[in-house]
Specification:
The complex is a heterodimer of chains A (787) and B (253). With 787 residues, chain A is of the alpha/beta class. Helices cover 49% and strands 9% of the residues of chain A. Chain A contains 32 helices and 17 strands. In chain A, the strands form 6 sheets. Chain A has a 6-stranded mixed β-sheet. In chain A, helix 6 crosses helix 21 and helix 17 crosses helix 30. The longest helix of chain A is centred in the N-terminal third of the chain and has 35 residues. Chain A is globular and about 85 Å long. Chain B has a single domain, classed as Aldolase class I (TIM Barrel), CATH 3.20.20. In chain B, strand 4, helix 3 and strand 5 form a beta-alpha-beta unit. In chain B, helix 1 runs parallel beside helix 3. The longest helix of chain B has 14 residues. The radius of gyration of chain B is 19 Å and the shape is globular. Classes of the chains: A alpha/beta (787), B alpha/beta (253). Chains A and B meet through helix 26, helix 29 and helix 30 of A and strand 3 and helix 2 of B.
């Protein structure tokens, strides 16, 4: 690491999260102004972005080589009042959160009180959306049956393909002009909408080019003032870079990175999309620039490493936008889910691992930053040494990179109807979600709480927590004669709630299509320009809406326990089971012990339990997969929790697997914490019993002690374990490399473990920043001592 | 678990003719099913639970368990290891299982004390890809004291296997003040050198007290109390010695 990089990294780590009112003020100023009047919604959005980028404060860090910040300084985080409006109370909560707080200065409160809140109250997108929801949706939502991603953030979730490395924004503007000229006002009833959308795209492109121009001017001035001749040369070079990109296609490694970064800033300033925008297949996109630079002598390996390191710092400077209400208090994470993809296959299907792949892995190891996160795509065509190098880094215990199955991702995307080359250009983003990079809008719509549905089923449609009837009347379970009757009731409730969720999604998608266009993002995702349609309105080549199932391990164990004890062994009657659950096992320690220890569990390659996982999977899949969405896309499923298994657990009482009220559920497709007692190969066999290829991503978390990675032999075994899981079509596996004692000690002495990063669920976070329940849960995850 | 190349499925046989003081698999010593009490912990409370250790199984049952692991064995170049206890104590069953494994294409390893008849060894030799073979002490008197049996037959069988060009991994427990003296190490080295090239690896297995609690559970005496675990430096020195003699060596094998 050069001293420059060391300094920038240190600054980024030490920078304090704060709320910046800058964007809220400028956006409000724009919407109050004359310029906003009489414009179409997309054009308003583009002009709002322009107003923000033209007036925001520019930041230039000492020694920086890649320029641009979303806020006025690193980690100064903007708000998006047109989407969701923070109350003064929300700001106080964010300021006081014990975990990952955002400092809120007096000035922010004042501005919010006097300008932002009076203007936006009652007219945010969130207001629009919540008033459009019916009672059944609100009941299920408030009970915690599902969450809604678009409630506080704009739809996002896409990853950039290779477009920007071939085309400048001026080229895109030319394409737009051609499209506008070709509009058919005689036959196409949407011609006007298309013109407005295309115009907005062009305006947004102009906004970001002007923003780059402001940076070029700033750098010009700085260079003139700079006394150190070396830095002066550098500033002049940086100025030249900003004069060329993003207007034109990049010619050098440096230009390629800076171009991406301007695009990134445009996308995350325009809206607050879930999840962070992402360059995706970085080792593929940058390779031609890397090679060319080395050949021409304009670039060295060291220079490339330094530029990449500076680029890495930029991501780390940008926490995700803070939330409101309960989520502001309880959100367990504020990382923005950028996931750099390495390896995999080329569009032609060949091994894509190259020199740059290994250089980027070096940077990941050296930088050891939370963001950007990273993953390796492992195809059967990739060499073992690629996995070995990644294991060296995983071993150091900061949760990166995670490991994905390229062949499964391609198969999943092709099953969904995508062209195979588009699929091979894809990868995974966010936590584990498969996507065709550059051509797909794949919106996560919300987590779905399988176990809450079971709880409601066990209470004949009532939520025992509120006493409210939120589900269907499927009968008092005490009257069920067979386990099949219980399953049928559960399936009915599942279908009922999934229908509510899908209906809600379709309404929300229309609202977002109409009121929340993203003309800047639309420039980069094919075929938005060709279709003259926004990213949020179905403009992309592929449009997918995901519902993410949560708690597969828990639901499997709960159903298994009911079948085992109530219907097969008949040693516990349904009514005493319900009675114990109601009492939260108080006074029933012995029976609870049997439920926890003496009952078949998911994760041990025991079909008695594992069959239930498959049944739940099929119910979920049948209810969702293939249904049309109102953007003209399709609903699909995936199985990942982020941190929602903690929230979902908090709204559920005691359950038949012995879990007490309020405790977290299992995460991803992993077994219930501590329930897998037969070692990692049994876990892998159990979780392979569901059909990963019919999902858009599954998440498997395995914790290993560091010794597991100790020598070449161990590395080869882990590599074989990965290859085996992937041969069984597993989608993703991640390794947490820590010891339980270390974590316990970290709970006692957090001050000594400030740098301790653990893998949570598809992403990494500082252990100290996690809520205590999540900390406990990570400790509980089985530590596999041997294989 | 390090019990041969790659990821391995290990089948433990119950029953052992030896009673080594340091045995870390005491559940493998007696031949029959045993009832023991395990303690489950939940929220600070202990729940004692009766458990049966060992199960009578036939070849088909065991193979059903083994084939589940096929993908891991194939991807890692691993295979099946028969261990114990002493697998040769049930030699016909072992032969059956080895045959079945070979039919499935699995690599096979037999982890043995070597305390068995030549006839038994001949039965399974051709079906075994690699032997994991314990050498505990070269001095017969002390071998008898520590394990309950003489080492004569064990060393003869080892010499025989080597003469038949079987691949052998030597497993050498390192027991401070019991078998780690220069004299014993010297004699062991000398003996093993006479067997090359059959010896593909020497694993130094440092004694550890991790199995102490198991002895309580099985109601057995643990004779090793007071014996320290070997130091890392001593192990390294020993490793060097074997390496200088031309062996491939692993600590903890």
């Amino acid at each position: 690491m050069t001293s420059r990089v060391e300094k920038l990294r240190e600054q980024s780590l030490n920078a304090v999260n704060r709320i910046s009112p800058e964007r809220a003020v400028l956006i409000t100023e724009f919407y109050k102004s004359q310029d906003a009047r009489g414009r179409s919604v997309p054009v308003q959005r583009a002009l709002a972005l322009d107003h923000f980028l033209s007036h925001k404060k520019l930041w230039l860090g000492e020694g920086e080589m890649i320029v641009g910040e979303r806020g006025p300084a690193p980690k100064a985080t903007p708000t998006y009042p047109e989407i969701t409006l923070h109350s003064l109370k929300d700001l106080e909560i964010l300021d006081a959160r014990p975990k990952v707080s955002f400092k809120v200065e007096e000035e922010v409160y004042r501005v919010y009180r006097e300008e932002i809140i009076p203007f936006w109250r009652g007219r945010t997108n969130r207001d629009r959306l919540m008033t459009a929801m019916d009672k059944s949706w609100l009941n299920a939502y408030h009970a915690g049956v599902f969450t809604e991603f678009q409630e506080q953030r704009a739809p996002g979730h896409t990853v950039l393909g290779d477009k920007i490395y071939h085309k400048g924004l001026i080229d895109l503007q030319q394409e737009i002009r051609r499209q506008i000229r070709a509009l058919d006002y005689f036959h196409d009833p949407e011609a006007l909408d298309k013109r407005e959308e295309l115009t907005a795209m062009s305006l947004a492109a102009g906004a970001v080019m002007r923003f780059a121009g402001r940076y070029a001017d700033l750098l010009h001035g700085e260079a003139a003032r700079e006394k150190d001749p070396l830095r002066r040369r550098e500033l002049e070079e940086m100025e030249a870079v900003c004069r060329w990109v993003p207007a034109h296609a990049p010619r050098t490694f440096h230009e390629a990175l800076q171009y991406y970064w301007f695009v990134h800033l445009g996308v995350v300033s325009e809206l607050n999309p879930w999840d962070s925008f992402n360059p995706g297949r970085l080792d593929q996109h940058l390779l031609p620039f890397y090679r060319k630079g080395l050949e021409e002598g304009s670039l060295t390996e060291e220079k490339a490493r330094e530029l990449l390191s500076c680029f890495w710092v930029k991501f780390n400077n940008h926490p995700s936008p803070p939330k409101i209400g309960v989520t502001a208090q309880e959100s367990n994470t504020y990382t923005d889910f950028t996931l750099i993809n390495l390896g995999g296959v080329t569009p032609g299907g060949e091994d894509a691992v190259n020199k740059l792949t290994f250089l980027i892995l070096d940077v990941i190891e050296e930088m050891r930053l939370l963001q950007p996160s990273s993953m390796i795509q492992v195809s059967r065509k990739n060499p073992d040494r690629f996995i070995h190098r990644a294991l060296d880094i995983i071993k150091t215990g900061f949760g990166q990179p995670s490991v994905f199955n390229t062949d499964a991702i391609v198969a999943e995307l092709v099953r969904q109807g995508k062209d195979i080359e588009d699929a091979r250009r894809g990868g995974a983003s966010g936590c584990v979600e498969s996507g065709a990079f550059g051509t797909e809008a794949y919106i996560l719509t919300g987590y779905f709480n399988f176990n809450k549905v079971l709880e409601v089923t066990l209470h004949d449609g009532t939520d025992p927590r509120s006493g409210k009837k939120i589900g269907l009347t499927t009968g008092d379970p005490r009257g069920f004669k067979s386990f099949e009757e219980l399953m049928q009731a559960f399936e009915k409730q599942m279908n009922y709630f999934l229908d509510i969720k899908i209906r809600g999604n379709n309404i929300i998608e229309r609202i977002n299509a109409r009121y929340l266009p993203a003309p800047f993002l639309s420039l980069f995702i094919d075929d938005c320009i060709a279709n003259g349609r926004d990213y949020n309105a179905g403009g992309a080549r592929y449009n997918t809406s995901y519902i993410q199932g949560v708690g597969l391990g828990s639901i499997t164990d709960n159903l298994t326990s009911l079948k085992y004890h109530v219907f097969d062994k008949k040693d516990i009657s349904m009514s005493s089971m319900l009675n114990m659950l109601e009492k939260n096992f108080d006074g029933y320690d012995e029976i609870r012990h049997d439920l926890v220890y003496m009952t078949p569990k998911f994760g041990n390659d025991d079909d008695y339990a594992d069959v239930k996982a498959r049944e739940v999977f099929e119910i979920f899949f049948e209810a969702v997969d293939g249904r049309p969405s109102s953007r003209g896309g399709t609903f699909r499923i995936n199985l990942l929790p982020t941190t929602s298994h903690v929230y979902f657990g908090s709204v559920i009482g005691a359950m038949p697997d012995g879990r007490k009220a309020g405790e977290p559920l299992s995460e991803g497709i992993s077994p219930v914490q501590g329930a897998d007692r037969q070692g990692p190969t049994s876990v892998i066999r159990s979780v392979s019993k569901i059909d990963h290829l019919r999902t858009g991503g599954t998440l498997l978390n395995q914790k290993f002690s560091p010794e597991f990675f100790s020598d070449q032999d161990a590395k080869q075994k882990l590599t074989a374990l990965i290859r085996s899981y992937f041969r069984l079509d597993g989608h993703h596996i991640q390794f947490n490399v820590v010891r339980a004692e270390t974590l316990r000690d970290a709970q006692k002495h957090p001050e000594r473990y400030r740098d301790l990063i653990v893998r949570v669920a598809g992403y990494s976070d500082y252990f100290n920043d996690l809520g205590v329940e999540l900390q406990n849960e990570i400790i509980k995850r089985t530590e596999h001592e041997g294989m | 678990m390090h019990d041969g190349p790659g990821i391995r499925t290990t089948v433990f046989f119950k029953g052992c003719p030896l009673q080594c003081w340091w045995c870390h698999n005491p559940e493998g010593i007696r031949k029959d099913e045993e009832e023991v009490v395990s303690v489950h912990k939940m929220e600070g409370r202990d729940f004692p639970v009766k458990e049966t250790v060992g199960r009578w199984m036939d070849t088909e049952e065991v193979m059903n368990e083994i084939v589940r692991e096929r993908v891991f064995m194939e991807e890692s170049g691993g295979g099946v290891t028969f261990s114990g206890g002493e697998p040769l104590g049930q030699v016909d069953f072992l032969e059956d299982l080895l045959l079945a494994c070979k039919r499935e294409g699995f690599h096979t390893a037999v982890d043995t004390t070597g305390y068995t008849s030549r006839k038994n060894l001949m039965k399974i030799m051709a079906l075994t890809d690699i032997f994991l073979y314990d050498v505990k002490h070269m001095d017969d008197r002390r071998h008898l004291a520590y394990t309950g049996v003489s080492n004569g037959r064990i060393l003869e069988n080892l010499t025989f296997l080597a003469s038949q060009n079987k691949k052998i991994m030597i497993r050498l427990p390192v027991l401070p003040a019991m078998n780690d003296d220069d004299e014993n190490i010297g004699r062991t080295l000398h003996f093993l050198k006479s067997l090359t090239p059959a010896i593909v690896e020497v694993d130094l297995l440092p004694y550890h007290a991790m199995a102490t609690h198991k002895y309580e559970k099985f109601g057995m005496d643990y004779k090793m109390s007071g014996i320290p675990e070997p130091g890392a430096d001593d192990l390294e020195r020993m490793k060097k010695k074997f390496e200088r003699a031309g062996f491939q060596v692993k600590i903890g094998g």
